[in-house]
Amino acid sequence: MRNPIILLCLLVLSISCNRDKSPEGIVHVEPIENLNIQTMQFSEIDSAGILIFPLKMGENKDRENDYLYKEMPHNGYWNVLFYNTHTSTTHLLTENKVLILNYDFKYNIDEGISIPKKLNHIFYEVRTTDFNSDSLLNAIDPIYLFVSDKEGKKFRKLSPEGYNLNNWAFIESSNKIILTATKDSNKNLKFDDKDEVSTFEVTLDVNEDPIEIFSADLKTKLKTLYDRDWKRIN
Description:
alpha+beta, 2 helices
C-alpha cells in the first residue's frame, strides 16, 4: 500500500504542472512583467477636458535574454487611452488588435481653414487586417479609416473592407466623408499603381456602409474615352 502523504504530494505536483501548461502541453510563461507602458504624449480634445494618450509599449529582455513580443513599427500605436479630467474616468479605444498610424480631431482640414465649432469626432487611420497572412500588421496591410466620438467611444470603420485608404475629407455642408481607396484588383496581395482606385462617401452620423460614388457605367465610359484618345500607335 502506498504512503498517503506521497500520493498527496504527487497529486499537488500534477495539478501545479497542469496549471503551468497550455492545452498543447507548452509551459506557460507570464511575460507581462517585462513590459512597461509608454504614455509620453497626450493631447486635449478641443476644450472638453478629455485627454487622448496614444499607447506604445517598452519591453525588457526575459531571463534567457530574449524578447518575447513582435516588433511594432516605430510610427504606430497599439491602442489609445482616453482620460476625462472632469470625471477622472478612463476609457480604452478598443480591445481588438489594431495598429493605429494616425489620429485626427481637426477633420483633416488644412491649417488656417476654419473647422467645425463642435469637434464631436476623432478620426483614425488604422491597420486591422493581416492581408497577406504573415501574422503581422505592417506596411503591406491595408489602412482603414475609423471614427469615434471625442470620448473614444462608438469606434467604427468608415472605409470599405479590403480597400487601402488613400485620402479622405470631411464635407461639412453635407456631413459626409469622401474618401478614395485602392482595391487589390489584380490579386497580387499588394496595393500599388497597378490597382484601381475607387471613391466612396459615407454619412458621418449614420451607421451605414460606404457607397461608391462613380457607377460602373461611368467607369466604362472613362475607360472607353481613354482607350480612344490615348492608345499607343506604332
